[in-house]
Design goal:
Blueprint: E1 16-19, E2 21-25, E3 31-35, E4 41-51, H1 53-66, E5 72-74, E6 82-85, E7 89-95, E8 98-107
Antiparallel strand pairs: 1-4, 2-3, 4-8, 5-6, 6-8, 7-8
Pfam family, one: Phage_min_tail
InterPro entries: Phage_lambda_TipM (IPR010265)
Protein name: Phage-related protein
């Protein structure tokens, strides 16, 4: 069972939905398109989190444990819970005991 991501982002995230297609372009201007696989609808969500050093350390430990490839469960603001991954993140320091982490969650599929 995948882990559940429980931290709440501070920004009002705007997701990106990509519908992957394969295209064959012909010389007379005609093209044919077909959906790319059974999971051709893929979401990504740029997110930012703010908290204390301990909170952001726990969040980065969670992301590190999943190594950018292991999926975790997360519920986007618009949608249903699904499997996501985070291939990179950017930690930041705001001053005092205020730290940030910015990342993008990308939808992941499993058999």
């Amino acid at each position: 069972m995948p882990d559940i991501f429980t931290w709440r982002p501070i920004n009002n995230p705007v997701g990106q939905v990509t519908l992957r297609v394969r295209r064959a372009q012909f010389g007379d201007g005609y093209s044919q398109e077909v959906q790319d696989g059974i999971n051709n609808k893929v979401q990504s969500w740029p997110l930012q989190f703010v908290g204390s050093r301990a909170e952001m350390q726990a969040l980065s430990d969670f992301l590190d444990a999943h190594a950018g490839a292991i999926g975790f469960l997360w519920t986007p603001p618009v949608g249903v819970q699904g499997l996501y991954k985070a291939a990179s993140y950017s930690p930041g320091y705001e001053g005092g005991d205020v730290y940030t982490i910015s990342t993008t969650f990308e939808q992941k599929f499993s058999p």
